[in-house]
Amino acid sequence: MSNTDLAALQKTIVKCRACPRLVRWREKVAKEKVARFMDCDYWGKPVPSLGDPRARLLIVGLAPAAHGGNRTGRMFTGDRSGDWLYRALHKYGFANRGESFSRTDGLRLLDCYITASARCAPPQNKLLPAELKNCRTYLLQEIRLLKRLTVIVALGRIAFDTVFNSFRELELTSLPVRPLFTHGAQYALNQDQTLLASFHPSQQNTFTGKLTEPMFNAIFRRARSLIGAG
Q: Is residue 23 packed enough to be buried (19+ CB in 10 Å), middle (13-18) or exposed (0-12)?
């Protein structure tokens, strides 16, 4: 069963030490912390994916935030980007609640699975090409195991490129070249699966107005429409 295989894969991910630079950084952050979270026990390990093994919606982000996912141990949990994401997922029926605080808060994803281009928090949010390549092996396995995927939402250009590279490596796309990343772009990867592009809901984008909540919600409204139509 794919849910058993996915669970086993997440256990492997949590133990990963393939990228020495990322290992040093995530553990340093977890040890030193920041003042507002000084009383918290940081996760400080690769952050596993989460969601429904029978999901038709796959969300691919960049990497855990140093004091978000790297602290809480759950993707998009503990930072502002997660506030936007889980509100949108709940609004369009992909989550049972619109907020995420911890791994034990009762959040449940519905027909949705969340993963990332990299599972460790990187220094300055900058990932090296070799680190992305190392981590892509996990995404490749997830794509193989998520048998019902219909829509893939890529949050940010790096996630967008990661998704395309993964589908090309798996020989699951008929697109001859990498498509252009723009917010709201929609591409048919093959006859069954569609890629939607979104700006990442990072504070850099949301505070400057590059990404507004209506713009972000529109991505998940379209995902819901595509999945419903399918």
A: middle
Domain spanning 2-229: CATH superfamily: Uracil-DNA glycosylase-like domain (3.40.470.10)
Helix (H, G, I), strand (E, B) or coil at 164: helix
Shortest CA distance to 193 belongs to which of 229, 156, 149, 163? Answer: 149
What is the phi-psi region of residue 75: left when phi exceeds 0, alpha when psi lies from -120 to 50, beta otherwise? beta
**Around Cβ 209, how many Cβ atoms within 10 Å?**
8
Residue with tokens 């892509």: 136
Spatial distance between the Cα atoms of 159 and 59, rounded to a whole number of angstroms: 9
The pair phi, psi for residue 143, each rounded to 5°, is -60, -40
Per-residue model confidence as pLDDT tens digits over 47-58: 999 999 999 999
Rg of the chain over Cα atoms, rounded to whole angstroms, equals 16
Rounded to an integer, what distance in angstroms lies between the CA atom of residue 138 and that of residue 151? 19
pLDDT digits (tens, 9 = 90+) for 156-215: 999 999 999 999 999 999 898 999 999 999 999 999 999 999 999 999 999 999 999 999
Spatial distance between the Cα atoms of 119 and 97, rounded to a whole number of angstroms: 24
